[in-house]
């Protein structure tokens, strides 16, 4: 009975910090991006997303583009936390790798562009502009396991030995998608300048399924200590196992403005996407909210904004068959709102130091009337600061550079095909915790009412629990094929 009560309390500590959300903006909305990512100033059917105002310089015809991409991703977090050495299966090591795998076989996108008069034109884009996959963690996360690991570490600190260990079974599957449909209308002012305005409708869908069960503390029954028995006696009547089964949804609008200046060999374009306010609403299976307010059924104010984006680009025809491209993305993350699992408020953005940005470059070479080869790269930098306060193991984006290459084959004047591969290389980023995953604060806050009635200096005991580190790393490879048709 004592072991079950102790496990019950530890489970409450675990669920108080798990499953925080985050944001991702996908700009690879056409296979043309994979083979040459600096599409910001493109004048093609892909302009429907990348450069809506550029549609004004297309031929007077109706054009379509169908694309399918396949993504293979991993997310790796190496946690280094002394109490992990107490865990069953950790072989006495303080370091543990927590890995999530994601395979998305089909990521579709669709573009349509129509210049229906000398002055007026329109375009439509459908794609997945955020999230886009499923991540599965078979062996927990450091932020979860640490909440179980700290409890036997605390007990051992009280009794002055390493008698008590722990074991816990956890599993998490997280799915995040932002499906979007975007309509733009444009006007070509003169031979050199065109403008467009549009609206994107975003359907946001998140689904989380997980459990934390069979928490056990081997060795606890051998502890004959009045203080420990006092904690158990007052620890109460909490349930041991916790389950999560929650779907979060919202529908939100993104206004878009764009301008294109075409000077023949040189084309310059700009696009601005306004901040998209997102407030997710929960639909949670009965009793499966893991005891956390952000997953309680019916809650409808969980912030997960899509940050505003400024896209700038220039293309230059060095020769009739050689084309150079440059691009720049500025994200306004600090002006967006994100839910913070630690404070229970929509204030996670307060820890962002600088807005993220990207620099893009690419080259296209027409080998013949039939074949074009292309390649390019993208540099991505985030402004999390040295402390990396914004990122957690449940949701993290880290600095990276990407390279892509591919080919376009023209069957005839109306039909062409694209094929490409895009690979991202991530930095390894380390976050230093004085209190690893806030496990100490969680256990202190939950046990304070109990420990206040016992002759124990909890601060002195907590000081014996060391901090730790998380090293973040990711892998990402995307393949894609597409077909373009002009009528």
Q: Your description of this structure?
A:
Helix 1 packs across helix 5, helix 1 packs across helix 6 and helix 4 crosses helix 6. The chain has seven helices and 17 strands. Helices cover 14% and strands 50% of the residues. The protein is mostly beta strands and 487 residues long. Strands 1-2-3-4-5-6-7-10-11-12-13-14-15-17 form a 14-stranded antiparallel β-barrel. The protein starts with a helix and ends with a strand.
Summarize the structure.
Helices cover 14% and strands 50% of the residues. It contains seven helices and 17 strands.
Fraction of residues in helix: 10-25%
**End-to-end C-alpha gap:** 75 Å
Strand order of the largest sheet: 1-2-3-4-5-6-7-10-11-12-13-14-15-17
Largest sheet: 14 strands, antiparallel, barrel
**SSE order, one letter for each helix or strand:** HHHEEEHEEHEEEEEEEEEEEHHE
Q: Over the alpha carbons, how many angstroms does the gyration radius reach?
A: 26 Å
């Amino acid at each position: 009975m004592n072991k079950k009560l102790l496990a019950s309390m530890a489970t409450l500590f675990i669920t108080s910090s798990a499953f925080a959300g985050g944001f991702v903006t996908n700009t690879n909305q056409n296979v043309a991006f994979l083979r040459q990512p600096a599409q910001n100033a493109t004048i093609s059917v892909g302009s429907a997303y990348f450069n809506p105002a550029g549609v004004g310089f297309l031929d007077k015809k109706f054009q379509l583009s169908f694309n399918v991409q396949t993504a293979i991703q991993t997310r790796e977090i190496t946690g280094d936390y002394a109490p992990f050495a107490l865990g069953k299966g950790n072989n006495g090591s303080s370091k543990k790798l927590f890995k999530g795998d994601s395979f998305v076989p089909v990521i579709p996108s669709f573009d349509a562009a129509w210049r229906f008069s000398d002055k007026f034109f329109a375009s439509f884009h459908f794609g997945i502009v955020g999230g886009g996959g499923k991540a599965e963690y078979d062996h927990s996360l450091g932020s979860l396991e640490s909440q179980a690991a700290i409890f036997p570490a605390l007990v051992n600190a009280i009794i002055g030995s390493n008698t008590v260990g722990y074991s816990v079974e956890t599993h998490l599957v997280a799915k995040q998608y932002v499906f979007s449909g975007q309509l733009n209308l444009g006007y070509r002012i003169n031979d050199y300048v065109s403008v467009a305005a549009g609206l994107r409708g975003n359907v946001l869908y998140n689904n989380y399924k997980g459990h934390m069960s069979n928490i056990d503390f081997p060795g606890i029954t051998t502890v004959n200590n009045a203080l420990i028995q006092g904690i158990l006696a007052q620890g109460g009547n909490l349930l041991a196992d916790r389950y999560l089964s929650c779907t979060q949804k919202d529908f939100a609008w993104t206004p878009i403005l764009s301008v294109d200046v075409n000077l023949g060999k040189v084309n310059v374009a700009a696009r601005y996407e306004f901040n998209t306010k997102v407030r997710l609403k929960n639909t949670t299976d009965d009793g499966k909210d893991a005891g956390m307010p952000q997953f309680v059924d019916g809650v409808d104010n969980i912030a997960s904004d899509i940050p505003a984006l400024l896209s700038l680009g220039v293309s230059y025809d060095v020769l009739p068959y050689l084309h150079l491209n440059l691009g720049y993305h500025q994200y306004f993350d600090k002006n967006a709102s994100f839910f913070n699992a630690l404070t229970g408020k929509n204030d996670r953005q307060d820890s962002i130091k600088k807005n993220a940005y990207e620099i893009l470059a690419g080259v296209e070479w027409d080998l013949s009337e039939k074949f074009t080869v292309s390649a390019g790269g993208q540099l991505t930098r985030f402004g999390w600061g040295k402390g990396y306060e914004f990122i957690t193991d449940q949701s993290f984006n880290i600095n990276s550079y990407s390279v892509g290459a591919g080919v376009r084959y023209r069957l005839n004047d109306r039909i062409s095909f694209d094929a490409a591969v895009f690979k991202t290389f991530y930095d390894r980023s380390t976050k230093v915790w004085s209190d690893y995953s806030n496990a100490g604060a969680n256990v202190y806050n939950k046990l304070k009412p109990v420990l206040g009635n016992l002759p124990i200096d909890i601060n002195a005991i907590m000081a014996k629990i060391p901090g730790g580190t998380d090293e973040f790393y990711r892998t990402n490879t995307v393949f894609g094929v597409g077909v373009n048709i002009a009528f």
